[in-house]
Design brief:
39 strands, 9-stranded mixed sheet, mainly beta
C-alpha cells in the first residue's frame, strides 16, 4: 500500500483569518494572540506549529477541514521571522515562512448586539453559514468582530472616530468590540469601517449596512435598484502613462468596447453593495484580486498574466465569495454593432461581447492602431438573440478628462496619502479615483476606490486607504497605478429590450499613471 502524501499548504495561502489579508501586505502578519488561516490540499492534521527564535509552538485549531484550517496563535510566540507547518501521522508539510507580529488587525464583520458566540463560530467555517447582516439604525448598538487588534486601536466609521469598548472574547483569538453607529451618518446605504492604531498596521475595510438606506443621488444607484437584470455596453477609453526611474515616460492608449447582458446589481441596501458614501473611500485586498482582468487564463490555483513580453504566473489565494453583483449568461446574438462595426461575442467567455478598437496598450498581443474614441456621435445596435431582443442606442462620446497634477505625482508616501487634481468635461464631472497595487511575486493585491463629491476638482486619498497597497519594487511597473475615471453625471443613453429591464451605453474615460508606492 502506498503511503499517503503529506499535508500541504498552498504557497501564499497563510493569511489573517478575519480579513484574508495576504501575508506580504502590511496587515497580513501572523498576530500573537490572534487567528491565522491556512489553505491547501490534504490538510488533515494532528498538529499546527510555528518555529520562532529556536523554539517550536503548537497552535490551537479552532476550525479544520481537508482544505483549510483556522488556528489560534499563542501570545508567547516570539515576534519576528518564523516558519509554519502542519503534521499528520508523522508526515510534516513544507515549512512556510511567516512574520509573527504583535498586532495584525483583521475585521470579520459588524453585527447587532444579539449576534451570539454560537453564530460567530461560522466565521471560522469560511463564512459559508454566516447570516447576512441586518441594517443598523443611526445610534444603534453594534459589535465589531475581529482578530489581532491592538489595545490602543481606534475605530472609524464613515470618516468619524467612534468610541469602542472591548468585550470578553467567546473564542480564543476572536475579539469583540461594542460601539454605537454614528447618529448622523452621510447619505449612504453602507458605511466604511476601519481600525487604526499607533505602531500597528491598518485593518481591512468592512461595509456597515445602515437603515434607513438613503442611496446617493446617482444614476448608477438608481439603475442598481431595478429588480430586472440589466445590460451594459461600456465604451472604454484609457490613457496610461508609464514612468520609471531613469527612463523616458511612455504614454499608452487603449480604446475598447465591452457588453454584457443579464447583470443583476440588486438594491443599494444589499449587504454586498459596497460603494462608499460621497467624499469617502474603501479598500479591498486579496491574492490576485485583479489578475483575471489582465488575462482570463487560469492555471489551477494561479492566474497567468501576459503584459508586454513577460508572462507571470501569479498564485491565487483563498477566494472571496460575494453575492453582489451577479452576471448571468444571456444571449443577444452572435454579435452587436458599433457604428456599423461588428463586435463579436467573446469566444472564451460567452457572456461578454468585446473588441479592441484602437490604441497602443503595453500588451504584446495587440498591434498599435489609431485612437478610436473621439468626441462625437455613436450608435450601438443588435438584432437580438435567444434571450435578448433587438435594440439600438444613440449617444455622443465626451471629451477626455484632464488630470492636471499627474506629472507632479511620481511617488506616493502611503503614510501621508496623495492628492489628485483634475478637470472633467461638461456632463462628466462625476469621477471616482482608483489606486491599485499587484505584487507579481505572490499575487497580493489591493484596490482602493474613492468617490469624490460631484463637481469636485481635487481629492485627497487618506493614508488608511493606501495602508495595505503593496510597496512598488520595480519603478515604472504598470501593476502600481493611480487613476481617475470619469463617468456620466446623468442617466446615460439606454434602450428597452426583451429579456432585460434596460440596456445602458456608458462612456468611461480612464486617465492613469504608474506610480511608486514607497515602502
Amino acid at each position: 500500500m502506498s503511503q499517503q502524501a503529506p499535508p500541504a499548504i498552498t504557497p501564499g495561502a497563510i493569511v489573517n483569518a478575519a480579513s484574508l489579508m495576504p501575508a506580504s501586505l502590511a496587515a497580513g502578519g501572523v498576530p500573537r494572540g490572534g487567528l491565522v488561516a491556512l489553505f491547501g490540499p490534504r490538510l488533515e492534521l494532528d498538529r499546527v506549529s510555528i518555529k520562532a527564535q529556536g523554539h517550536e509552538y503548537a497552535l490551537q485549531p479552532q476550525f479544520r477541514s481537508e482544505t483549510n484550517v483556522t488556528a489560534y496563535v499563542p501570545v508567547d510566540v516570539s515576534a519576528g521571522d518564523a516558519t509554519l507547518a502542519v503534521t499528520y501521522r508523522g508526515q510534516r508539510s513544507v515549512d512556510h515562512p511567516v512574520q509573527v507580529v504583535d498586532y495584525s488587525p483583521g475585521l470579520f464583520a459588524v453585527r447587532a448586539e444579539s449576534f451570539s458566540c454560537e453564530q460567530a463560530r461560522a466565521f471560522l467555517d469560511r463564512r459559508n453559514a454566516i447570516p447576512r447582516p441586518a441594517p443598523l439604525a443611526p445610534g444603534a448598538s453594534a459589535v465589531l468582530w475581529a482578530t489581532g487588534v491592538s489595545v490602543a486601536a481606534e475605530l472609524t466609521v464613515a470618516g468619524e472616530r467612534v468610541a469602542m469598548q472591548p468585550l470578553p472574547p467567546c473564542l480564543p483569538g476572536l475579539q469583540r468590540f461594542a460601539f454605537k453607529v454614528p447618529t448622523k451618518p452621510p447619505r449612504a446605504c453602507s458605511l466604511p469601517v476601519v481600525v487604526t492604531a499607533p505602531n500597528s498596521p491598518t485593518s481591512n475595510f468592512l461595509p456597515l449596512p445602515v437603515s434607513p438606506c438613503v442611496p446617493p443621488d446617482s444614476w448608477f444607484v438608481k439603475a442598481a435598484a431595478n429588480p430586472e437584470p440589466l445590460g451594459f455596453v461600456l465604451l472604454l477609453r484609457s490613457a496610461l502613462r508609464l514612468e520609471g526611474k531613469g527612463k523616458t515616460a511612455r504614454d499608452t492608449f487603449y480604446d475598447s468596447i465591452l457588453a454584457t447582458f443579464g447583470v443583476r446589481l440588486g438594491p443599494p441596501d444589499h449587504p454586498d453593495f459596497i460603494w462608499p458614501p460621497a467624499g469617502q473611500c474603501v479598500s479591498f485586498s486579496a491574492n490576485t484580486l485583479l489578475g483575471a482582468l489582465v488575462n482570463d487564463e487560469s492555471l489551477d490555483n494561479a492566474s497567468r498574466l501576459e503584459v508586454d513580453d513577460f508572462v507571470f504566473t501569479v498564485p491565487r489565494g483563498p477566494k472571496l465569495n460575494l453575492e453582489y453583483p451577479q452576471v448571468a449568461v444571456r444571449d443577444a446574438g452572435p454579435s452587436i454593432w458599433l457604428n456599423g462595426r461588428e463586435i463579436p461575442k467573446n469566444a472564451k467567455h460567452q457572456r461578454y461581447y468585446f473588441a479592441t478598437l484602437g490604441g497602443n496598450p503595453p500588451v504584446k498581443t495587440i498591434k498599435p492602431s489609431p485612437r478610436f474614441w473621439k468626441p462625437g456621435p455613436y450608435r450601438i445596435e443588435s438584432r437580438g438573440g435567444m434571450d435578448i431582443g433587438s435594440f439600438s442606442i444613440n449617444g455622443r462620446f465626451p471629451q477626455e478628462p484632464v488630470w492636471t497634477n499627474r506629472d507632479r505625482i511620481d511617488a506616493v508616501d502611503r503614510r501621508k496619502g496623495v492628492t489628485l487634481e483634475w478637470k472633467a468635461p461638461r456632463g462628466y464631472s462625476s469621477v471616482f479615483i482608483l489606486a491599485l497595487g499587484i505584487d507579481t511575486g505572490d499575487g497580493a493585491s489591493t484596490l482602493c476606490l474613492c468617490v469624490p463629491f460631484a463637481g469636485a476638482t481635487s481629492f485627497t486619498v487618506p493614508p488608511a486607504v493606501l495602508a495595505n497597497v503593496p510597496a512598488t519594487l520595480i519603478p515604472g511597473s504598470y501593476y502600481y497605478q493611480l487613476a481617475i475615471v470619469s463617468v456620466p453625471d446623468a442617466m446615460p443613453p439606454s434602450a428597452a429590450a426583451k429579456g432585460v429591464g434596460e440596456i445602458y451605453a456608458v462612456p468611461l474615460s480612464v486617465v492613469s499613471k504608474s506610480v511608486a508606492f514607497l515602502p
